[in-house]
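Dear all,

This email documents one entry for the complex benchmark we are building for the journal club exercise. For each entry we list the sequence lines for every component of the assembly. Then comes the predicted three-dimensional structure of the complex as a token string, followed by one or two observations. Please use this as the template for your own entries, and keep the labels exactly as they appear.
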Amino acid sequence: MIFIFSNMVSLDYFLTLSIILFSIGVIGVLIRRNAIIIFMSIELMLNSVNLSLISFSSFMGDSQGQILVFFVMAVAAAEAAVGLAIIIALFRNKETINIDEINILKW
Amino acid sequence: MIKTIDFLNSIPLLIISVSAVITILVGSFYKKSTKYVYAVTLIALIAAIYYSFGYLDKEYLIYNNFLRVNNITTLFSIIALFAVLLSTLSAKAYIEKEEINFIEFYSLVLFSTAGMLIMIQSYNLITVFVGLELMSISFYILTGFLRKRIKSNESALKYFLLGAFMTGFLLFGISLIYGITGSMSYANIFQDTSVFKNPVFLIGSALFMIGFFFKMGLFPFHLWVPDVYEGAPTTITGLMSTAGKIAAVGTITPFIVYTASDNFRLIFSIIALLTMLIGNVTALAQSNIKRILAFSSIASAGYILVGVAAMNDLSIKSVSFYLLAYTLMQLGAFIIVSLIEKPAEGINEYRNVDIEDYKGLARTNPQLAIPLTIFLFSLGGIPPLAGFWGKYYLFYAAIQSNLIWLSISAILFSVISLYYYLKIVVYMWFNPPANGDVYKIDSMPSLSILIAAFLTFLFGIFPQYFFALFKTPFK
Amino acid sequence: MPDINTILFYIFAFLIVSFSFIVVFAKNIIYSAVSLFVTLFGTAALYILLRADFLAITQVMVYIGGILILLIFGIMMTTRITDSEIKTTNLSSVPAVFVSAGVFVILIIVLLTTKWNINPPVENDVTVNRIGNLLLTTYLLPFEIASVVLLIALMGAAMYARKK
């Protein structure tokens, strides 16, 4: 059987980990200037959300959370494809993806 | 399981999605069929609006309670569909001018419309999320549609990164709401009203709303608006600033009114105040017409939030009227800007979008200057135009909820906004022409301008027609 | 003596947090991508601890097999490998740390003081069948919408790539 472990770690542990991961992602988005690294930080945030959804779902014995995670993954894949297409289109025209060199990308 | 009756109860959504798929199929086999695809898109939108009117007095839960059709969702759907119709009608001339007349354009517009309808009608947080993403991803692609122009690429990248960032917050909010209520269906979430006071639910719904406030362009999430609106192809700017905003408002307003808690009223009022301040004051210093309209759109989001913050019976009524008026005037203005804009020879900037270029427009192109003056007066809230009544109803709703200070400051900001709207009008009418260019106007854009100008007058003089048309939501 | 679950949780949590720091703060973008790989893999392991076997496999297939590879392609195409342009700069900004610390503190305080209603999880429950059934019956509508989202992503990426 796959699951040999009987008792689970408490929900609070998973939520704490999820929040730590989320905050690291937020820092990454706000301080990094490279579009691809910002995108990776966003993936970290989505991962933390997935972790919290799955923990809620497992601890409540309810499937909805896991289903939403499935959709989040599908949408994240679509976003990755579109985002990288945009990044490459910009790179073709401008030869940079560093935000300091992109005029309007200062926020 | 999905039942056959569900299809009959969601005909507009079906029309839009099926025709979107048809446009892709036709486009992949016949490269030269953009004319027919354009016609299919318009027919689909008109048919969807026509069938939507049939649902105004109905009440259904369809597709296993994932979507809800009732008078309020239908009302917002009709306004959103109308905005898409008006902007698509005028889009063809623009995308031909910029040489981006691809079939993907129409498919993406239709898919984003499907996303809007799904968002507005959703009765489950899962459908809110996937509908929002359907709309947003279409918009990211459309923003960068001028893919050889750096400005368009840059704004697409900015919109994409910030949009994905905000999706993270939205999802964390959904996760918290799910954790505390144990469900994602509105039916279960709204069942137990005691949970609305729970701090986890409050934080969860705050994060959830942040995602929509971002789409609406409210303070502190407005920073993307001017840059993205300036960099996107002008017809897409018109589409995003009206239909996209309507979808976000239509999704979030029922949610807020359901879970109305006084904890949020003060926060909303402050956000509305700051949004109006930032939008109107920053617009004073702008000289690019697309940026002026972008800041005016931020200010409009602030006015809308005034009505939402009222959270009373008048909220949905006033917000929906303002949204329609806003669609007419803002979209009309963007259509005219898109006609005056010239295709760029290089690859960088948009040409002829500075207000200096509008000098003397009344003398060279009165057929553009007159409707633009009407739209700008309406945006400024001058009676008897639709924009005046829109603001009147919003501020009246706020007064009903004892938010008198908010209404007074909103009126003050509205007066300030007259300065930059009138500046454009003065440039057009009382200055010598900057150049003698006479702009070519195709029949379709002029039709959409005519419709917008006519309705601005009609709903300005007889605002009760709107409430007669959508009788049932306001009983 | 802590049980094996807790030990495993701590190991993976440590891996995830430390490598996600590298993702965010590494000067070399390739290091970030490789660290993201470890983070995603560690999260997949935690999904198994949480008895979400289907999603753990999906995580490995979609995130690691798809998104991460796509990201590395993006890095390779947008940076000239030959010169040392691959390094990226940081913007040291106090407000950023402030915002994210604020988010962290508020969420931690609220979440850890809340009483969640927890049902005892089902022992040795395999989720693949259940999720498969649900996706094609109850959740058919969102499933279709998600497939449309993938379709437009495909269309959009192809549109950006075309020459004309």
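Observations: Confidence is low (pLDDT under 50) at residues 81-87 of chain C. Residues 12 and 42 of chain C are 6 Å apart (CA to CA).
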